[in-house]
Design brief:
The complex is a heterodimer of chains A (about 150) and B (about 325). Chain A has one domain. Chain A is built from six helices and no strands. Chain A has helices at about 20, 30-45, 50-90, 95-105, 115-130, 135-145. The longest helix of chain A is centred in the middle third of the chain and has 38 residues, at about 50-90. Chain A is elongated. The two termini of chain A are about 25 Å apart. Chain B is an alpha+beta fold and about 325 residues long. Chain B has eleven helices and nine strands. The chains are: A mainly alpha (about 150), B alpha+beta (about 325). At the A-B interface, helix 3, helix 4, helix 5 and helix 6 of A face helix 6, helix 10 and helix 11 of B.
């Protein structure tokens, strides 16, 4: 989460968006989550064994995922949104635009020959993997292609 | 208590048994359980496995073949000389153990990461793809007339089912749409030959020893259909566990798999195998989304279920690698 996100926009009589009027104190949710994940990883994991150790690893993975998403999603959502607007030429929420794209692919109105579609799907998918499974071998291979 | 119940049942088909010991639950969902136990004989133990739906859980999900059919298929495979455990007993109502069967326990490993990394399997790994090709040919060659009643699937039906299931989640996934579109455009149509298909021929359902394949398990998704489906499914990247350049289970090549299959006296259609690999990749993705739904709706509110929802994106990158590879 970038600091800007927590700065309220009170300028020019505009109505502040929901996110911007909540001015909670620090630390941020991401910092809190990371502190819990680090505690579980460094202090608890070494003293737990058996099935609970497995469950604990899953729990730590979940917290790490939340931290990655909080760190990355603002930027990747904005980029995804810009690409979708470019491809579709319409406005709406991110999920609206994804629904519209899904629908167009299903109907065959856009396909891999459509300029920008393949690149959009790749970038969107790489952004998902960066949050979901950054160690997935296919993802690491594709990152290695250097873009 | 389970040991007493088991012994009462074992005594009905094994007169030499004097007891049952070491019963341990290996896995258990709401509707199916697997138990391991030893049957005591005067001169030693016989390892056994109980696979059952506990009392009160009779209804099988739509895709499941049913435990009676599973038992029959395992027995047929065993009799045909395929690596399949001997079925010792099919549960009867008077056994009072639910529905299911008891089979011989086969020692070995099912965990993919161990099979792919542990030293004890180093000699087996290069042989596995070819062996599994031959095993698949044997499964597909089991005589139709002796098979239990099974659902019949085709590529066209499977595309429709995947589409319906994906749409039921009401969450847009442009990459899944692309895959559904590709599948429809590349639907190979009815298979010339319709055979028994194992339906879940992959890591986790294969017992491997240092000597190679020892058993094929879990016939829950068995059906009649295009035999190339099993060859495509075992090539899905999700079953390579990081060894992405070895398409067959992370241990072998398609050429080895196909060679073993043809050694088993059957023909491979590589284009159909590719179709089923794409289908299988999408199917695993849809299954990940389905497990997330089960987490959200409540029947299984575990962390593991929740996290599987975040593995659907793995299948999206694999679908793109298959359908829109980058230069």
């Amino acid at each position: 989460m970038t600091p800007e996100k927590w700065e309220p926009d009170f300028g020019q009589g505009s109505c502040p968006k929901e996110r911007e009027i909540e001015m909670q104190d620090e630390p941020t949710p991401m910092e809190l989550t990371k502190a819990v994940a680090d505690f579980l990883r460094n202090d608890i994991a070494p003293v737990i064994s058996g099935h609970n150790a497995f469950k604990l690893r899953v729990a730590i993975n979940m917290l790490d995922l939340v931290v990655r998403q909080s760190t990355l999603e603002q930027g990747s959502d904005a980029a995804e949104y810009a690409r979708l607007q470019q491809l579709l030429g319409i406005d709406g929420t991110l999920i609206d635009l994804n629904r519209a794209l899904a629908d167009k692919i299903a109907k065959g109105e856009v396909d891999l020959a459509t300029p920008g579609l393949s690149e959009h799907l790749w970038q969107t998918t790489l952004a998902k993997l960066a949050v979901d499974q950054p160690n997935y071998a296919s993802y690491k291979r594709e990152l290695g292609r250097g873009d | 208590m389970i040991e007493q119940e088991l012994f009462r049942c074992v005594a009905s088909f094994d007169a030499a048994a004097t007891g049952v010991t070491s019963a341990a639950k290996l896995s258990g969902g709401a509707s199916q359980e697997t138990w391991s136990f030893d049957i005591v004989h005067p001169n030693g133990y016989v390892g056994a496995i109980l696979r059952r739906s506990p009392k009160g859980y009779g209804a099988a999900p739509t895709r499941a073949a049913g435990l009676d059919a599973e038992a029959r298929l395992m027995q047929l495979a065993h009799e045909a000389g395929l690596p399949s455990p001997k079925v010792m007993h099919v549960l009867k109502p008077e056994d009072d153990l639910g529905a299911g069967f008891i089979m011989a326990r086969i020692e070995g490993e099912t965990i993919a990461r161990k099979i792919l990394r542990d030293e004890q399997f180093a000699r087996a790994r290069p042989m596995l793809a070819r062996q599994l090709g031959k095993v698949a040919a044997g499964i597909h060659g089991l005589p139709r007339a002796e098979l239990p009643v099974l659902r019949e699937m085709s590529s066209t039906k499977e595309i429709a089912e995947m589409g319906r299931e994906y749409r039921s989640f009401d969450w847009p996934r442009p990459v899944f749409e692309l895959a559904l579109r590709w599948l429809a455009d590349h639907d190979p149509g009815p298979s010339q030959e319709v055979t028994l298909v194992h339906g879940d021929f992959r890591h986790g359902n294969l017992i491997i020893g240092p000597d190679g394949v020892r058993a094929v398990l879990d016939w829950e998704l068995a059906h009649l259909g295009d035999p190339m489906e099993d060859l495509g499914w075992i090539c899905v990247n999700s079953w390579r566990f990081g060894e992405i350049d070895k398409p067959v289970g992370g241990f072998g090549s398609r050429e080895q798999l196909f060679a073993g299959y043809e050694e088993g006296g059957r023909k491979v259609d590589p284009a159909r195998v590719k179709f089923w690999e794409v289908m299988g990749t999408l199917r695993w993705g849809v299954m990940c989304c389905g497990m997330m739904q089960r987490f959200r709706m409540g029947p299984d509110h575990s962390m593991e279920r929740a996290m599987i929802g975040r593995r659907a994106s793995e299948t999206e990158i694999d679908l793109l690698r298959l359908l829109a590879p980058r230069a």
